[in-house]
Design a protein that fits this description.
484 residues; alpha+beta; Heat Shock Protein 90; 3 domains; five-stranded mixed β-sheet; two-stranded antiparallel sheet; 16 helices; 9% strand
Length: 484
C-alpha cells in the first residue's frame, strides 16, 4: 500500500537512523490508513481510533482461535456427538477474556510506541517534517546512567560494599536464628521489590538521580546481598537443617530481577539508538562540510571568465556588456541568497538557472540555445540549494563548451505520479559531447556532492540518475519527495 507523503517522508528520515519502515508504519497501521489517512504513525501516538482498531483485531483473532480450539477439543473428547455447541456462558467467557486481552495488548503497544518515539526525541506529528533531526545532546543525555536508577548501581564501589554487608549479615543471622530467617527474607524481598518499582518509575519519568546518591546505592547493594544470601540459604542449608523455605522470597526476587533486566535492556537499546544517531549525524556533518566547500568554491573561474569577457565587450559591444552586467548581478545576488539558505524553492533555483544560462549564452554566443520549463505544481516545492547550479555547471563545462557547433540545454521541473506517489522530477538535458568524450569524461566532485546531499536530506528517497541522451549528450535527472 502507498503511504501518505508525510508518513513516507517520516519513514525515509528515520531510515537514516536504522529504524525500519515496518516500525514507522506497521502492517495494521497501513490497513487502518485506508479509512483514516490522517492518523499519525504509532511512534507519534497514532490515535484512539487506531488503538481501538488494534484491540478489536486482537480480540477477534483470539476469540475465534479459542472458540475453534474448544470446539475441536470437545469433538475429540466426545467423537460420538454430531455437534457440540458452546454454552452461552462459555461463549461469553471466551469473548470477555478476548476483549480484555485485546484491550491490554493495544494499551501496551501504545505505551511501547510512545516510549520508542521518546527515546529518539521525536517532535509532535504536527511539527515533524523531512528536515527533522534528533537533538544529539538530548540523545546523549538519555544514555547517562544517572537517568537509569537501577542500571546506575552497576560498577559502584559503595554498592559492592553494601552487598558484602548484606550477604554476610543475612548468612550470619540465618545460622543464628534459622526459623526466623524465612520471615526476614520474605520481608526483605518485598521491600526490595518496592524499591525496584520506585526506581523503574523514576526512570520512566526521566527524573535524573542526584549527583551523590550514597543512600540509594547502599540500600540497593544491601538488599541485593540479602536476597542473594536468602536464595542460597534456601537451596541447601535450610533443607539440611529441616527449616521451612519461602516461595515468596524466590518469587519477589525473581520479579525484582525481571525489573532490573528490563531496565538494563532499555539502557542498551537507548545506547544503540544513540550510536546510530551519532553515525547518521557524522554523515550529515560530512555532507554539510562538502556543501560548504562547494559554496566556497562555486566556480570562481566561471565568474572570472565572465568578467574577462565583459571587459572585452565594454569597448566592442557596450549594449551586450550592459546586459551581461545585469545578468551577472542577478546571478551573484541569487547565488548569495542560496549560499545562506538551507533550503530553497524550485522557482528560486530556476531564477538562478536562468541568470546562469543567460551569462553562458552571452559568452558562448548564438550557438547555445536554452529552454527552461517549470510547472506550476513544482514551483513551490522546497529542495536543497544549488542542486540545479551544480548540474548546469557540469553540463556547460564538461558537455557543451568542448563541443564545436550549435548546442542546446533544456531544464525541466514537474510533479510526476499521483496521490501518495507524487515526486518532484528535475531534469537537465544537454546535447554535448556525452560520456567519456574529450578531456572531461566521468563524474566529478560536484556530482558526488549531490548524491551525498540527497542521502543527507532524503535518506534513501532521493534519486539521482545520469543517462545518455540521443543522439549525443547527457540527461541528469533528480527524483525527489515533494516537500512544500
Amino acid at each position: 500500500m502507498t503511504l501518505p507523503p508525510k508518513v513516507q517522508a517520516a519513514a525515509d528520515v528515520l531510515a537514516q537512523y536504522e529504524i525500519s519502515a515496518n516500525i514507522v508504519a506497521p502492517l495494521w497501521y497501513r490497513l487502518y490508513l485506508r479509512y483514516r489517512p490522517e492518523t499519525p504513525p504509532p511512534l507519534w501516538g497514532a490515535s484512539e481510533g487506531y488503538w481501538l482498531f488494534r484491540a478489536i483485531k486482537t480480540s477477534l483473532g483470539l476469540g475465534v482461535f479459542l472458540t475453534i480450539g474448544l470446539v475441536v477439543a470437545a469433538k475429540l473428547s466426545a467423537p460420538q456427538e454430531q455437534f457440540l455447541p458452546l454454552t452461552p456462558a462459555a461463549q461469553f467467557a471466551i469473548w470477555a477474556f478476548s476483549g480484555a486481552f485485546g484491550w491490554l495488548v493495544a494499551k501496551a503497544l501504545a505505551v511501547r510506541s510512545r516510549e520508542e518515539g521518546e527515546r529518539i526525541g521525536l517532535t509532535t506529528w504536527e511539527e515533524f517534517s523531512a528536515s527533522w533531526r534528533p537533538s544529539l545532546a538530548d540523545v546523549r543525555l538519555r544514555i547517562s546512567p544517572t537517568h537509569f536508577w537501577l542500571r546506575s548501581v552497576v560498577n559502584q564501589k559503595v554498592v559492592l560494599f553494601g552487598w558484602a554487608i548484606g550477604f554476610i549479615g543475612f548468612l550470619a543471622f540465618s545460622f543464628a536464628f534459622p526459623f526466623k530467617a524465612v520471615t526476614y527474607s520474605e520481608g526483605a524481598a518485598l521491600v526490595y521489590l518496592m524499591i525496584c518499582a520506585i526506581g523503574a518509575l523514576l526512570t520512566a519519568k526521566r527524573i535524573p538521580m542526584p549527583t551523590l546518591a550514597p543512600v540509594w546505592y547502599v540500600s540497593n547493594g544491601l538488599f541485593i546481598g540479602v536476597l542473594v544470601a536468602a536464595c542460597l540459604w534456601q537451596t541447601i542449608p535450610a533443607s539440611l537443617m529441616n527449616v521451612p523455605v519461602s516461595d515468596l522470597t524466590l518469587a519477589f526476587s525473581a520479579i525484582a530481577l525481571v525489573i532490573h533486566t528490563h531496565e538494563w535492556l532499555s539502557f542498551e537499546e537507548q545506547k544503540n539508538i544513540a550510536l546510530r544517531v551519532e553515525r547518521a549525524e557524522q554523515k550529515n556533518q560530512l555532507a554539510e562540510i562538502r556543501l560548504q566547500t562547494l559554496k566556497a568554491q562555486i566556480e570562481p573561474h566561471f565568474i572570472f571568465n565572465n568578467i574577462a569577457h565583459l571587459k572585452s565587450l565594454i569597448s566592442t559591444d557596450p549594449m551586450t556588456a550592459q546586459r551581461m552586467v545585469d545578468e551577472l548581478s542577478d546571478f551573484l545576488r541569487g547565488s548569495l541568497r542560496s549560499l545562506r539558505a538551507d533550503q530553497t524553492t524550485v522557482r528560486e533555483e530556476f531564477e538562478l538557472a536562468r541568470a546562469y544560462l543567460a551569462l553562458a549564452k552571452l559568452r558562448m554566443g548564438s550557438r547555445l540555445s536554452t529552454n527552461l520549463q517549470l510547472s506550476d505544481r513544482a514551483a513551490h516545492v522546497r529542495i536543497p540549494p544549488l542542486l540545479l547550479q551544480t548540474l548546469l555547471e557540469n553540463a556547460i563545462f564538461h558537455g557543451l563548451e568542448p563541443k564545436a557547433g550549435d548546442v542546446s540545454i533544456k531544464v525541466t521541473a514537474d510533479i510526476i505520479g499521483n496521490g501518495g506517489k507524487d515526486r518532484l522530477q528535475l531534469r537537465v538535458i544537454d546535447d554535448g559531447i556525452g560520456f567519456g568524450a574529450g578531456h572531461s569524461g566521468g563524474s566529478g566532485v560536484g556530482l558526488a556532492n549531490i548524491r551525498d546531499r540527497l542521502a543527507s536530506t532524503y535518506g534513501g528517497a532521493g534519486e539521482f540518475v545520469l543517462t545518455a541522451n540521443t543522439p549525443s549528450g547527457v540527461i541528469a535527472e533528480l527524483n525527489l519527495p515533494v516537500v512544500e
